[in-house]
Amino acid sequence: MQKREQLRGRRLNQWSVAVIAIVFILVTAVLAVLVTRSIDVITTTSNRIDDNRARHAAHGALQSLRKQLAATVRDNAYWDDAYRQVNLDTRADWIVENWASTTADYPLYDTAIVLDAKNIPVVAYRNGEAMDVSASQLFGPAFDGMLAAARASDRSAAVPVHFIRTNTGIALMGAAEIRPSDVDESVRPENLYVLIFAKQVTADVVAEVSETFSIAGLSLDDQPLASKLSVPLKDVDGKTVAYFNWPSQTPGTMSYLEVESTLRTSAVIFVLFLFSIGAVGFFTINSLKASDMRSRYRASHDALTGLLNRSGLQEKMSEIRKNDGGDDVWLRLHFVDLDGFKGVNDAWGHAVGDELIVAVASRLRDTLPPGASIARLGGDEFAVVTVDRTETKLPLCVGQQIQIALERVFEISGRTIGIGASVGVALSRASTLDIDELIRQADIALYRAKDLGRGITIEFEESFDADTRQMANLEDQLRDTLAKGEIGVAFQPLIQAGSGAICGVEALARWQTAEGTRHAPDVFIPLAERSGLIDLLGLQILTKSIQAAQQWPGISLSVNVSPLQLRNPRFTQNVIDILKAADFDPQRLCIEVTEGILISDPDQAHRAIEELKKAGIKIALDDFGSGFASIGTLRQFGFDRMKVDRSLIVALDHEENAGAILHATIALANALHIPVTAEGIETEQQALAVKMSGCDELQGYLFSKPISAEELSAFYFNGASSQTDRQTA
User: Of 402, 494, 519, which Cα lies nearest the Cα of 697?
Assistant: First the structure.
């Protein structure tokens, strides 16, 4: 009996062991299946999330490229000045200057085409040069489709931007009719010109998209590639013209391979492995989330400074309008333009310029109040958004804070650099915020700040719009005056220091309207430069001056030239053609240039000056002593004459060391064998001082004010007047 009980007990133990073993085996098997299934799910899910992220990023990249080009086309096509310019005879020059020439290095497009109302190209440039094939040949049948889409597109609709296949690959093209910025019922759609911008999708563009949107291994292909992810690039008709392909990164699979050996160690490690899988999965998902956040960050922030970019700034203002849209909340937008930044780039290169931009961004972060949103809009332009409540009073205007902060010198790569800032401010209630209008107002205020001398803060006023309209009206008047050839010319004599005889004249532009209103040169000449009329104005002044000087044999004719004229590659030939047409001796003509062009574009200035000198025309450096022209500049350009700035002459009357400065300046020119003209002479004492210092030519009110050609002939060539008469003319 006892044995039976023992046997039963052993069997029970055996069954218990067997059951426990079976249960353990089953549990282990189930756990293994569950773990395997979990690993597979995590791996597959991670891969799918990454693939979805990559597809989303790729679609976002295509959308970003199209939006950027659409915004650029819209900004340039729906533009009052562009609409006026393309309807003028000077349209080609204006188009080349504003659009075509920028295709050489502009990041958003490398092709610019403008077609007239009959779809005949007016200007077609690619990579900074006129296209040697027609647009239809280059872009194929899709070009006509894009043109039709632009013609059919309403201004309220999105600008048509699509990918097209060209004979050199794939290009992104946008097109829009050139219209006024505001709705104008008088505009006839059948008479509108069309602006087209296109960007070749090169390997560099693909690489930039790959880096910006974290899509590794991105390529542009004609077909979707097996075992790779892809998104189609479609044309205006919805047809696929190419594909973006890239390999799946399979982060889940890679994570599994890293921990595979751990799974095979032991049951204990197996339990630990479950936790590691969870950690790996959690880490993988978090990495994907972080990658997505980085992509969004790059899309809304400036790569150089880490500040918001233009898109990020607009999103920030939209967020403020949504979250803080009460009537007691005010949004103030500051546009900031660095004064003197271009000189830093020209003097020390873009690397130092980039360091300076980063230093400016850092100083703005340290200076501005908490809650201020700072953005870099591009180049040397920044923006700052502050939110104020009616009961909040800032201790100091933000614009003034910005100016004070940026006026302090910067230490960049061992250099002490001083710049400044001009600030334009616009204000709006958050509840009624119109972002585009606020940006427009801030831009107008900034332009006014720069126009008033820079280094100041200007807040937008309603009168600025009236001023803008007034300047537009004045531009129309100037355009009409030039079209009729009614711009005037006055002449101021140049006097030999030794004999007191007239040896030349300087031609000066004068504008008096039919109603008798006189506009000063410092008003209408900058206006002509901004509106693209300076070439026409300069050539009319030159032509009239030469016609008048033909009656004054034996004396020179000096004519001032704008830096913008000298940048025009056709300027030299235009001058030579005018001389030939008038049969005027080039040796008698002296072109006066300021040092601004020598610093901003020395290569073009050197080419133009060399061509003029080869034609026998003399070149004078005007206003020497008022800027930064160096001995090297005087040697490099080989000037025939130097004109001492009037400020050095005026200083003789009230500055103790002015005489020494003047004498040293003239001595420098004499040492280089450059004859010197002193301008702004008003007293006998000033005339004596400059003659004693070595000037051989004098100019100023002491001898004559600017007078008409008829008065000059009567005073100096008909023997009709005394020296006293000339001084009071």
Answer: 494
